[in-house]
Please model this.
Amino acid sequence: MGRARHVISVVGARPNFMKTVPVIAALQRRPDDVRHTLVHTGQHYDDAMSRIFLEELGVGAPDVMLSVGSASHAVQTARVMERIEPVMTDLKPDLVLVPGDVNSTLAAALVASKLGIAIGHIEAGLRSFDRTMPEEINRVLTDQISDLLFIHSPEARRNLGAEGVSPDRVHAVGNTMIDTLVAMRARIGEMHAARRRGLEAGSYLVVTLHRPALVDGRLLADAVAALDAVAADMPVVFPIHPRTDASMKRQGLSFRSPGMRVLEPLGYVEFLSLVQDAAGVLTDSGGMQEETTYLGIPCFTLRDNTERPITCEVGTNVLLGLAPERIREVPGLIEQARAEPAEVPPGWDGAAAERLVDVLLQAGLGRDRDLAPVGPPGG
Ligand code: UD1
Model:
């Protein structure tokens, strides 16, 4: 019998929580094999962007809070690195688990790699092939230095192979964010968020927009005008991200249509309840493209590319381009989309975290680990 391994999970921003929580739960079901510590970098710090998720998902307060807050990319990344290094040096984990593609993900992975600690990357191998996106840089670099690459989409294996990553490091475990959706489905179903807000199921559009390419500059005014136009046809529910809210204020923008319902960011259960009963979703988020695929809700993505092409292949997601005027087409596109059934990709089934932990426990970890080497390009 070997000793229990020590795993640190690092979360920082809203989408990280749903990807990591099922893995924490699966680790906690094996207390003889694993000890777990949750580190929150504090990249997101508003209650509505952070605390509410951990509470709803049953995790509670993190063991370590680094409180890095908002700053430029370099400063935010550097702050996470400076503050997490002593934590890792002190705790000497066997593995650091990082999810997704936010600045906290890359920062934690870099520090672990310099300390010789094994890294597991949840949601590895996704590529938009758009290196102007901060997330794409975070993905490529995190994958290069991770030892265990947990993928949930078939093209991830090809993407990693093309970057010279040894196939031995790649493990198709499925989608842990969908685990959260499956685990919370009953609570989501009981919430009736639409009815509580006086909205008829199947009648309204849910909107989330927050990417810098769309909201930081002049495209935001076009998006606001187009959403006002859509809201004349159908109710539009827009829980607004703090980045978007700040940019609207800075640019002096506001909605005019009475059909527009601008809300504070919502908790996980209420938000997914609204999505589940929506006629469609307009978004630039990554996670939404996957959640709508699982739920079979038409999704329209206001970006030129997606790192989640499988959501388009199965037919629930349509790329509109980074073209706010196309928002006006959404009510018509929803009508056409309704006939198409969704096919859920393999491994998006609620059991991904269990498979991930199986892989993790079978891998040799720690300083005596025997991990597959990084393969030469094309070799
Ligand atoms: C980050 C991620 C993005 C992810 C998104 C989900 C990076 C590079 N980007 O973007 O991939 O899709 O989270 O939300 O890591 N703010 C608050 N309160 C908060 C957090 C942020 O007011 O709790 C405001 C601040 O004005 C801040 C701005 O939002 O400057 C942006 O926050 P930041 O963490 O830099 O990036 P996001 O746009 O949230």
About this structure: The pocket of uridine-diphosphate-N-acetylglucosamine is lined by residues 13-15, 43-46, 49, 70, 101-103, 134-135, 210, 241-243, 246 (CB under 6 Å). The two ends are 37 Å apart (CA to CA). The CA atoms of residues 300 and 333 lie 9 Å apart.
